[in-house]
């Protein structure tokens, strides 16, 4: 095999390849003999058709199949021999081959960028520092009380804090029912701070079991669902039950009901304080990591091959489709998605460069411990971790980030 590389741009390369005739002919002859063994033609026994006849009648199509099967491995061999690492699958053009002659083709590709990270010491970043306040603990305690509230049917009009069990029928602008848009025996908490529409809940106050009421309202403007945010709706509401909610007393008994590890309310408060602190520390660490990577990218400005970004986006698309059968395969990428993909690729290249320069390595013992911790958290056995190499890379990145933190100029900010 002969290869010739022509530089077409910073990362763009043209790879000309010539494969000797003997190699192609050997592969074609092997395929012809395989075909000969199962071929049946009138006048000949099965497998006894002369090879020359097989070649005359079917040689062209068999040769085409052989070339199609060979090209991927030939291309991989050619890029390896030429010392090229493709950033995305190469595109083959100008393929030329005549029976008995050599095979020539040209591949256009972008190579994997070779980046040397600079200025990775003394990066500037901020670490959030948080002190858990009593108010935060109290908010979590109230949320626990709401989750463990009891309900009892009452014979009185609906009031704030009650739960209404009702059928909801969506109506059109003229007040007629929309077929197929009915929701039966829905539980509606009146006064819920996360309600889709406070207007809707307020309009229900005063209803009693057996009553019906038509309600027109607007959804909250700040809803994440843009199709609902700020939109108006019209419903007929048929009340089944009014339920009074009773929150449990905040005492030692309440704490004991939540778990054997809590003997007193003080134990529960301490547990909540530790949980809140851990969440803040995790958020602070993630933000610090992100800031350091952003700084590293800013101090090392370089462009990525567009094909590399596209290939990465397609790989994310395939992964998402494997987990979501309803995922749209024709999904078009937003500017935000492209920017995020570009950042992730640059982060990968720069962290790898820092790792190599600083000599960061993961020992087998470190990896075993990391895998064991992942097993404890996810339940997946280390021997069953399909992407062990990816897990090792994750630990390598973690160690590189720790190195950047150790060398960074970090100021603390109380939040």
Task: Outline the structure in words.
The two termini are 64 Å apart. Helix content is 46%, strand content 22%. Strands 6, 7, 8, 9 and 10 form a five-stranded antiparallel β-sheet that branches. It is extended and about 95 Å long. Helix 5 crosses helix 6. The protein is of the alpha+beta class. It contains ten helices and eleven strands.
In short:
By secondary structure, the protein is α+β, with helices and mostly antiparallel strands.
Keyword list:
415 residues, alpha+beta, Alpha-Beta Plaits, Chitinase A, domain 3, 3 domains, five-stranded antiparallel sheet, extended
Helix content: 40-55%
What would CATH call the homologous superfamily of the largest domain? Trigger factor, C-terminal domain
Q: Tell how many strands the DSSP assignment holds.
A: 11
Classify the secondary structure makeup into a structural class.
alpha+beta
Question: What number of domains?
Answer: 3
Largest sheet geometry: 5 strands, antiparallel
In terms of topology, how is this protein built?
Layout: E1 2-7, E2 12-19, H1 21-38, H2 51-81, E3 91-97, E4 103-110, E5 124-129, H3 134-147, E6 150-154, E7 163-171, E8 177-189, H4 198-204, E9 212-218, E10 232-246, H5 252-258, H6 265-299, H7 306-323, H8 335-358, H9 364-378, H10 388-407, E11 409-414
Parallel strand pairs: 5-11
Antiparallel strand pairs: 1-2, 2-4, 3-4, 6-10, 7-8, 7-10, 9-10
Helix pairs in contact: 1-2, 3-6, 5-6, 6-8, 7-8, 8-10
């Amino acid at each position: 095999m002969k290869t010739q590389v022509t530089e077409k741009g910073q990362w763009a390369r043209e790879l000309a390849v010539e494969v000797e005739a003997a190699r192609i002919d050997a592969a074609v002859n092997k395929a012809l003999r395989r075909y000969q063994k199962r071929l049946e033609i009138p006048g000949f026994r099965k497998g006894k058709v002369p090879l020359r006849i097989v070649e005359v009648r079917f040689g062209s199509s068999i040769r085409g199949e052989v070339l199609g099967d060979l090209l991927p491995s030939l291309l991989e061999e050619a890029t390896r021999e030429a010392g090229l690492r493709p950033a995305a699958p190469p595109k083959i053009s100008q393929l030329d081959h005549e029976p008995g002659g050599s095979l020539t083709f040209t591949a256009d590709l972008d190579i994997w960028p070779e980046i040397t990270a600079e200025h990775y010491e003394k990066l500037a970043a901020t670490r959030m520092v948080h002190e858990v306040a009593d108010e935060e603990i109290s908010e979590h305690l109230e949320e626990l009380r709401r989750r463990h509230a009891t309900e009892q049917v009452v014979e009185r009009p609906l009031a704030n804090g009650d739960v209404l069990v009702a059928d909801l029928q969506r109506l059109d602008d003229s007040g007629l029912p929309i077929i197929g848009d009915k929701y039966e025996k829905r539980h509606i908490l009146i006064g819920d701070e996360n309600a889709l529409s406070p207007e809707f809940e307020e309009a229900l106050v005063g209803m009693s079991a057996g009553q019906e009421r038509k309600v027109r309202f607007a959804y909250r403007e700040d809803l994440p669902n843009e199709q609902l945010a700020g939109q108006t709706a019209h419903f007929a509401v048929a009340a089944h039950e009014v339920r009074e909610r009773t929150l449990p007393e905040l005492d030692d008994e309440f704490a004991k009901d939540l778990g054997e590890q809590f003997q007193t309310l003080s134990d529960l408060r301490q547990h909540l304080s530790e949980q809140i602190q851990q969440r803040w520390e995790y958020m602070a660490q993630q933000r610090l990591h992100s800031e350091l990577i952003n700084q590293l990218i800013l101090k090392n400005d370089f462009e990525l091959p567009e094909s590399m970004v596209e290939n990465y986006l397609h790989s994310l698309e395939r992964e998402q489709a494997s987990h979501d059968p309803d995922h749209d395969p024709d999904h078009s990428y937003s500017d935000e998605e492209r920017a995020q993909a570009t950042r992730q690729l640059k982060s990968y290249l720069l962290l790898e460069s820092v790792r190599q320069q600083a000599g960061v390595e993961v020992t087998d013992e470190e990896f075993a411990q990391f895998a064991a911790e992942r097993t404890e958290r996810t339940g997946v056995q280390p021997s069953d971790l399909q992407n062990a190499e990816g897990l090792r890379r994750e630990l390598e990145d973690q160690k590189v980030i720790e190195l950047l933190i150790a060398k960074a100029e970090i100021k603390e900010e109380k939040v």
